[in-house]
Design a protein that fits this description.
Helices cover 31% and strands 32% of the residues. It has seven helices and 16 strands. The strands form two sheets. Strands 1, 2, 7, 8, 9, 10, 11, 13 and 14 form a nine-stranded antiparallel beta sheet that branches.
Length: 322
């Protein structure tokens, strides 16, 4: 229980298990009540090595295409309706976490920028995706699924956004997330409002389909965390059916997600708070950064197009460190 006026910051792994390897020291979940909370702009405290350039190492392209093919086969066989397949690349070198957080804050003003340090490592990111917010009795979440690149010109950019809004594959992927969020919130006791309009949300380097889902519930201590438990992992980062998708990921994805795609955020003594999905993120270690990005695989997904989608998402971090 938090005392009046306290705020706790929390982070959780994608799966309910402690981290290992590069994620050593990151538990399955951690909640911290700080002695002091400072509010203000992020300020960098260092700089990149070698004039601001880190070397990117990516040996995952062929294996990622193979994983997407396996996922598509599982979907065709009726085992899954959707599964998110992620990949990891490394940027070798060093960077001050405070500097990277400042750069992310500057580039992604509409996103939630976060950083969690554990021993010699720090997990940082700029999430575009609200998992759940509870403000007084108002619950808000966003379905964010369906992706397209930014265009090279204003006309090309508009055309990409229009194609995203009308693409049946992207609409199907998005629909799974909307229905999941509504169902899970209703089961958690939230009195739901009518679903909002699906819009194209534009960020640096990328377009997303986004639908706001809102409702009402009386706050009580710990409620925001219980809502997080009801919603995570959503089909936007796991898949559907959820249990089978998580099992497929554990058996076939070939990497330890750690806190990537897990919930990060804060909660106060009333039970109100905001939690985000830890996307567009990197694990900073002594020798460089580990970055992950995933794509939602549904019927008709093309391995090469899904690979390109992960490239676009990885660029969110890579563009500010290379």
């Amino acid at each position: 229980m938090l005392d009046e006026g306290d705020v706790a910051f929390a982070g959780f792994g994608f799966a309910d298990r402690p981290g290992s390897g590069a994620w050593e020291g990151f538990p399955s979940g951690r909640l911290v009540v700080p002695e002091r909370v400072d509010r203000g702009p992020a300020v960098g405290a260092g700089d990149l090595d070698e004039g601001g350039v880190l070397r990117v190492e990516d040996g995952t392209r062929a294996s990622y295409r193979d994983a997407v093919k396996q996922a598509a086969e599982a979907i065709d066989a009726g085992e899954l309706a959707k599964v998110v397949v992620a990949r990891e690349v490394e940027a070798v070198g060093s960077i001050d976490p405070a500097e990277l957080l400042a750069r992310l804050s500057s580039r992604f003003e509409s996103c939630a920028v976060f950083g969690f340090g554990r021993g010699p490592s720090c997990f940082v990111g700029a999430s575009p995706e609200v998992l759940v917010e509870l403000a007084d009795d108002v619950v808000t979440t966003f379905a964010v699924a369906g992706t397209a690149p930014r265009g090279l010109s204003p006309a090309g950019d508009s055309a990409n956004a229009e194609r995203l809004a009308s693409d049946p594959k992207e609409q199907a992927e998005h629909h799974y997330v909307v229905e999941y969020l509504r169902t899970r919130l209703a089961l958690a006791g939230v009195d739901l409002d009518p679903t909002g309009e699906t819009e194209v949300r534009t960020l640096p380097g990328i377009h997303h389909l986004s639908t706001m889902v809102t409702g009402r519930i009386a706050p009580e201590p710990g409620l925001a965390l219980r809502l997080v438990g009801a919603l995570h992992p959503s089909p936007a980062v796991g898949g559907t059916p959820s249990t089978f998708a998580q099992q497929w990921i554990a058996e076939h994805e070939g990497l330890d997600r750690g806190w990537y795609a897990g919930p990060v955020g804060w909660i106060d003594h009333r039970g109100c708070g905001s939690f985000y999905v830890a996307l567009r993120s990197a694990l900073i270690g002594p020798d460089g950064l580990r970055l992950m990005a995933g794509a939602g695989i549904v019927a008709g997904s093309d391995p090469e197009q899904e690979l390109v989608e992960t490239d676009i998402k990885l660029a969110a971090i890579l563009d500010v460190v290379t």
